[in-house]
Design brief:
10 helices, Arc Repressor Mutant, subunit A, single chain, alpha/beta, elongated, Double Stranded RNA Binding Domain, four-stranded mixed beta sheet
Length: 272
């Protein structure tokens, strides 16, 4: 084929329309963009982004365009709308019901080692239960970093599924929530069956732990073992020291020991 013929063929390609979705698929295949779709949740419609590494973002936005702008600003990549993969969508709905039979993967690249440790520890908090910021700080081996834990949770890129809503202030009050606001935190916890009003009353009265006068074990108020306690056998404690002084030992499941000991500041400003 002569050079002239080649040029003629190339000129003909100008009239050929690229297949629909070619640009989007190319961006996704090269890792320059993540796919996203809307998902109905207890907080209304949220937008969920994902890529082959796992979930990358969950955000509230007024429109798909607003979500795309926020996603690019926060993660530095484009977001491309696509139909939700059926298996992923089903798994997300299971997680919202507290069913974790299918695992989720999370793309946390770009986050520091400390923030990743905080987020992965938050994943260990069971559905319908809460833990204080100081618990996470202690569990990741940074017991004095309570305020930093709050800051890390405030910048959780995948709220709801990495459950920063299950982490509360050391004094028992709910604290803030980066996804929409504090009332959203209450809404999500209530959707998980948490009696939030009861927890607020306990926090107001200074009660931090429940104990059983039959086993002499003390737990966080939402620990599943407290659900089997009858009022006549339930003992309330204002501190770990008070529980230990009464001869009680910490629960091995919810691990309340020392959760209050290193509260080196009020994380309410930075906590998610």
């Amino acid at each position: 084929m002569t050079e002239t013929e080649i040029l003629e063929k190339l000129e003909e390609l100008r009239e050929v329309r690229a297949p629909a979705g070619l640009r989007a698929n190319t961006l996704l295949a090269t890792g320059l963009a993540d796919a996203y779709f809307p998902l109905e949740t207890p907080l209304g419609r949220l937008y969920v982004a994902h890529n082959p590494r796992g979930l990358s973002a969950v955000l509230h936005a007024r429109s798909p365009q607003d979500f795309e702008r926020a996603f690019q600003a926060e993660l530095g990549r484009l977001a491309v709308p696509q139909d939700p993969p059926p298996k992923l969508e089903a798994t997300l709905r299971e997680w919202l019901r507290g069913d974790h039979r299918h695992k989720l993967r999370f793309d946390l690249r770009g986050l520091g080692e400390f923030q990743q440790a905080v987020l992965f520890k938050a994943l260990e908090i069971p559905y319908g239960q809460i833990r204080p910021y100081s618990w996470i700080a202690r569990e990741i081996g940074r017991p004095k970093a309570v305020r930093a834990v709050g800051t890390a949770l405030a910048h959780n890129p995948i709220p709801l599924f990495i459950p920063c809503h299950r982490v509360v202030r050391t004094d028992g009050h709910l604290g803030n929530y980066s996804l929409i606001g504090p009332e959203a935190k209450r809404t999500v916890l209530e959707a998980e069956g948490v009696a939030v009003d009861d927890l607020v009353r306990l926090a107001d009265s200074g009660i931090r732990y429940f104990g059983s006068d039959t086993t002499h074990i003390f737990c966080f108020p939402t620990c599943r073992y407290n659900k089997t306690l009858t009022p006549r056998h339930k003992v309330q404690f204002t501190s770990e020291a008070a529980a230990r002084a009464a001869g009680y030992r910490p629960c091995k499941i919810c691990k309340p020991s020392c959760a209050e000991s290193y509260a080196d500041g009020d994380p309410r400003v930075t906590a998610s």
